[in-house]
Design a protein that fits this description.
52% helix, disordered N terminus, Immunoglobulin-like, 17 strands, metal ion binding, 1091 residues, four-stranded antiparallel sheet, 7 domains
Length: 1091
């Protein structure tokens, strides 16, 4: 029986139907070579020695009988390809040379050009209708080489095929009527012997049939058609018109060509004759190797592909690299040559690639993405009828085996795709894509119609694999030595591994399965694993319940409890859950262990505190960090307690409150224990130190450590989340119980710490107080010749040195406390000094200067005590006293009159009476003019119920106006409302009138003939307010001024007392006597209540 590639029988020239291979419809295509029934190959890709030898012979034959120019990316040299084959088939050099010689002796194949005339476009219209009825004549011209690189360079001739190639080697296409763009899609096999001197020729003709003039005139469309009729009338009847030709040298062709060729003209009349689309392929017929003769081409190509791909993978593995799926240029060249020479269709090449890759993927390591291309190609070209029964069975088996293998990988994805390998997620995703694409193929649905949906299969595999992984992990953590403690540690390790796996599922794997198959791997794995964990934990806790909990067992149980909390926190929610979780309420299993946990926490913390204090040398950590190592260790210890409390986070509100109370109680107790230990440590270290400064350093570190501890304790409400706890226990505790319990504990601890800190700071302050008192005493006892500014220098230098040292060694809070104590003590010493030196202005001046400088020192430009803390009541009183004591007698007198002027301004009552005056100053005359107008409502001082008043006018203070004698008005008999209407002028410069305390003293007296005059009252008119001294130089209308009368203070004025203490100052004593006399007079006639 002849095959489609058999030689055609001889037919009449030109009119016979050409022997050809028409391109069948896709559903009719089959493998071009018959296949024999074979059993499905096992997944193994290894060949027997006999099979390997036959396949090697086939590969060598392919390389030796290569046709066509190489592709740009292919290997040109045959020696390089032969060397590659020797390596790929693991052939020894002698064996390779022997096989090569044998292949070279084999009969050459029949060389053929498989030419497919697909279509043409833009051809000439030769008929009167403007169209043509084109057909093609094609063949191989042998023995005559074409000169030049293109047909255009040779002499043009018409009907090359018809006149040059023998008729029995000429082939003809069908005639496509009335078109300028014919489509043929016809394939022909053209044999040739020598590629170097053979050329492919194609002539395109317009079929000319015999028609009557009437028929032609009916088809006439334009003037060109009419000229065509006249032209045809002059030629022979039935002569076809030449449309153009294509001539290609075979040696210029690649193995496969698919392109548009221009139709060459025979004359220059119509140079543009259109294009013809040709597919040209250089193939073999009757190949000599045994494999080609015994096996279908598809099977041989499959085996060759498997062998070369296997070599590519192993070669990369030997170089410690992974194969990326790209074939080497040598392998790609050999496979391309073999498929082309055997004339394998693209579909069968894709099928062979799929079968080879799917088998190799199950035994070799390479990217699963290599399977996507053949899957896509098969899906694109799939029609079931093109494959024979054994090929369908082989494809079905490949689907089933790859699906089963892929599911087995997914079942073990944790070990097959470990995250320790960077590209594992990408590899898993690639495998899922391959499985998804395979199951979506039309071929898979037709060949495996009863297959379970892929998502369901994968879900079941993942669930099974999760359970298997759990049991493997449980077996891996099985303790070598039996015992409850070892069993607990093994269970803890198992839970921690499960948490790590769930984290990987949540953050990495779940996204891959969700995006590819809509499978929630994380939720499924969590539900399976938490059920398995709950069963193991319950069994373990039941075994532990019968024995007391040792510290080691308590620690193991606590770690297990914390791990279970972490596991439960991964709960994805009730989206796919039926009922409650197996781990719900697991904390109740650990309730008996809580006392041991709390005791262990306190014991460990206490041991750490004791060890930290014992190792502490009481040296600051750095210039900026002024506490020692034990304070840091204590902070870490308290942080660990808070961390333990957060880890415990007991779900039951009432029990959680009691646990928190215990944590706070233990923390406060540790704080007070630390204070006792650190003080004892300081005494221990100071005992061996002779230098007093070293002991002070340690004392500074001790109070700094306590201050740091106070800050740490103050953070307990935040660290133990009291607000959240208060919200949780609000429904089970009485209102205010948390405040009364936890806050009371905290405040008690802070109060104890505050007392310890104040005691330590007071100890440091006492060391300075002695020096401060000594320097202040020396300050008072210095000679009169020493200036106050110089007298305070020793005190200031002492404070500068000491305070700078303490500021360097104390934290700011403790330094401020120290400054407060020192400031209070300094004020006390200064007050004592001021009281003892009350009568000595010089000593008081020194104390005043000292107070001013000490204020600046303790303020320290805002770095010391704030102004509000410095300006206490004591400071303000001392400042006032020293201001007076340091003043001279005249300054005191001046201050006295200032106070009386102030008293006058504040007096509104006229129960003693009042005087009315008008005063003005004329600058040009330097005269003070006073008009005493009247007095009113005077007190009756005589026995007859009346008075004899007159007014004495003096300018005070007298030392400012020594030349001006007092003036008096006329005496008025028995008149309580006298009208004086008298004017007095004082010649006085303006300057003394404008000083503080300068005033006109109006003393209203009752004239007594027999005894001393009685005092009615005093009034003070400040001179600086007199018109002319303020405002315009020449005042206009002078206003009247009404001054209520006042009495001097009956209880003694402090200024007068101070002046009285200066016994050696005559001026002071005279002033005091006068004022005392006035006060005595006032006391005799002071008004009684109810007048």
């Amino acid at each position: 029986m002849a095959t489609p590639f058999s030689h055609p029988q001889r037919r009449p020239p030109l009119l016979r139907q050409a022997i050809k291979i028409r391109r069948r419809r896709v559903r009719d295509l089959q493998d071009p070579l018959a296949q024999t029934a074979q059993e499905l190959e096992p997944p193994s890709h290894h060949l027997s020695p006999e099979e390997r030898a036959l396949l090697y012979e086939e590969a060598l034959y392919t390389v030796l009988h290569r046709l066509g120019r190489p592709e740009p990316s292919h290997v040109r040299e045959a020696s390089e390809l032969l060397q590659y084959l020797q390596e790929a088939f693991h052939m020894e050099p002698e064996e390779h040379q022997q096989m090569l010689q044998q292949v070279q002796k084999l009969e050459k194949p029949i060389f053929c050009l498989k030419a497919t005339v697909k279509q043409a476009k833009g051809i000439l219209g030769k008929d009167v209708s403007g169209f043509s009825d084109p057909y093609c004549l094609l063949g191989i011209e042998q023995g005559v080489g074409v000169q030049g690189g293109s047909p255009g360079s040779r002499h043009r001739q018409k009907a090359v095929v018809r006149h040059t190639i023998p008729e029995e080697q000429t082939h003809r296409t069908q005639v496509i009527t009335q078109t300028l763009n014919p489509v043929w899609e016809e394939t022909f096999i053209l044999e040739f012997e020598d590629i170097s001197n053979s050329s492919f020729h194609l002539d395109m003709w317009d079929l000319d049939t015999v028609e009557s003039v009437r028929q032609k005139l009916g088809e006439l469309t334009d003037l060109h058609g009419l000229r065509r009729i006249f032209k045809e009338a002059r030629k022979d009847k039935g002569q076809d018109d030449f449309l153009g030709n294509v001539v290609v040298r075979l040696q210029d062709l690649r193995c496969r060509e698919d392109q548009w060729y221009p139709l060459e003209p025979c004359t220059e009349t119509y140079p543009d004759r259109g294009q013809c689309h040709l597919q040209l392929q250089l193939i073999h017929k009757r190949r000599a190797p045994a494999a080609s003769r015994a096996q279908p081409s598809y099977t041989v190509h499959l085996h060759l592909l498997q062998q070369l791909v296997s070599h590519e993978v192993t070669r990369h593995q030997a170089g410690s690299t992974s194969w990326d799926g790209s074939l080497s240029p040598q392998a790609a060249t050999i496979l391309f040559l073999h498929a082309t020479q055997k004339d394998l269709s693209d579909f069968h090449q894709s099928l062979a690639q799929w079968l080879a890759y799917s088998r190799l993927y199950q035994s070799l390591e390479f990217p699963s993405s290599c399977l996507l291309h053949p899957i896509t190609s098969i899906e694109y070209q799939w029609i079931q009828g093109r494959l024979k029964g054994e090929q369908l069975e082989e494809l079905t088996a490949s689907f089933s085996k790859l699906l089963a293998y892929g599911l087995s990988l997914l079942r073990q994805f944790r070990s097959v795709f470990p995250l320790s390998v960077p590209d594992s997620p990408a590899r898993l995703q690639s495998l899922l894509r391959v499985l998804v694409q395979m199951c979506k193929m039309k071929a898979f649905r037709e060949l495996c119609p009863d297959s379970t949906p892929l998502p369901r299969l994968v879900t079941e595999m993942l669930r099974t694999g999760t359970v298997q992984w759990f049991h493997l992990k449980q077996q891996h953590h099985q303790p070598m030595v039996p015992g409850m403690l070892e069993a607990g540690r093994a269970l803890l390790s198992l839970v921690q591994d499960i948490i790590g796996d769930l984290h990987q599922c949540q953050h990495t794997w779940n996204k891959i399965f969700q995006n590819t198959l809509k499978i929630d791997l994380f939720s499924m794995a969590f539900l399976e694993l938490q059920w398995l964990v709950a069963k193991r934990v319950q069994d373990h806790m039941a075994a532990v319940a019968g024995s007391p909990v040792s510290p080691e067992m308590g620690e193991s149980l606590f770690q297990l409890y914390v791990s279970l909390k972490q596991l439960c926190q991964l709960d994805p929610g009730p989206t796919e859950r039926d009922g409650v979780l197996a781990l719900d309420g697991f904390h109740r299993w650990f309730q008996p262990a809580i006392p041991s946990w709390l005791q262990k926490t306190y014991s460990v913390a206490l041991a750490r505190v004791q060890r930290a204090v014992q190792m502490d040398e009481l040296v600051p950590l750095s210039e900026l960090t002024k506490h020692s190592t034990s304070a840091v260790d204590l902070s870490t210890c308290f942080a660990q307690i808070s961390h333990t409390a957060r880890q415990l986070d007991w779900p039951d509100p009432e029990e959680a409150f009691m646990i928190t109370v215990k944590f706070v109680e233990d923390t406060c107790r540790l704080a007070l224990v630390y204070c006792s230990l650190i003080k004892a440590r300081a005494q221990e270290l100071s005992a061996g130190q002779k230098a007093q400064g070293q002991a002070a350093n340690m004392q500074c570190v001790v109070v700094n450590d306590m201050e740091q501890l106070r800050l740490v304790i103050g953070k307990l409400p935040t660290q133990l989340a009291w607000e959240a706890l208060e919200q949780r226990v609000g429904a089970v505790l009485e209102q205010g119980q948390l405040q009364n319990t936890l806050h009371a504990q905290l405040q008690g601890a802070l109060a104890g710490l505050g007392h310890e800190i104040r005691t330590g700071v007071r100890t440091l302050a006492k060391q300075l107080e002695v020096g401060i008192a000594k320097h202040i005493q020396k300050l008072v006892g210095l000679k009169e010749s020493v200036l106050p500014e110089d007298a305070i220098l020793p005190l200031m230098k002492f404070l500068e040195v000491k305070l700078c040292y303490l500021n360097t060694n104390l934290v700011q809070e403790n330094f401020s406390s120290l400054l407060t104590l020192l400031w209070t003590y300094t004020l006390t010493v200064l007050m004592e000094g001021a009281a003892s030196q009350r009568s000595c202005p010089l000593a008081s001046s020194r104390l005043k200067t000292a107070l001013q400088n000490l204020e600046i020192c303790f303020y320290a430009e805002g770095c010391g005590l704030p102004r509000a803390a410095l300006h206490t009541n004591t400071f303000q009183a001392l400042q006032r006293d020293l201001e007076l004591q340091a003043a001279s007698s005249r300054e005191l007198i001046q201050k006295y009159f200032c106070s009386r002027i102030q008293q006058q301004a504040e007096t509104a009552s006229e129960e003693l009476g009042a005087v009315t005056v008008k005063a003005s100053y004329r600058t040009s005359e330097q005269k003070l003019r006073v008009e005493l107008l009247s007095a009113s409502s005077l007190l009756p001082l005589d026995s007859n119920g009346s008075s004899d008043p007159f007014v004495q006018l003096t300018l005070e203070p007298r030392h400012e106006f020594p030349e001006l004698a007092p003036r008096e008005t006329q005496k008025h008999k028995k008149d309580l409302h006298p009208l004086f209407d008298e004017t007095f002028e004082f010649l006085v410069p303006a300057e003394p009138c404008q000083k503080d305390g300068a005033c006109l003293l109006l003393t209203v007296l009752d004239h007594d003939t027999l005894g001393a005059d009685d005092l009615e009252g005093e009034a003070f008119l400040p001179l600086r307010s007199v018109p002319g001294l303020t405002g315009p130089e020449e005042p206009g209308e002078v206003p009247q001024t009404r001054l209520p009368l006042t009495y001097p203070a009956l209880n003694g004025d402090p200024i007068l007392q101070l002046l009285e203490s200066r016994k050696g100052d005559r001026e002071a004593q005279a002033f005091v006597r006068l004022r005392r006399q006035r006060a005595k007079q006032a006391s005799q006639h002071a008004p009684r209540p109810g007048r």
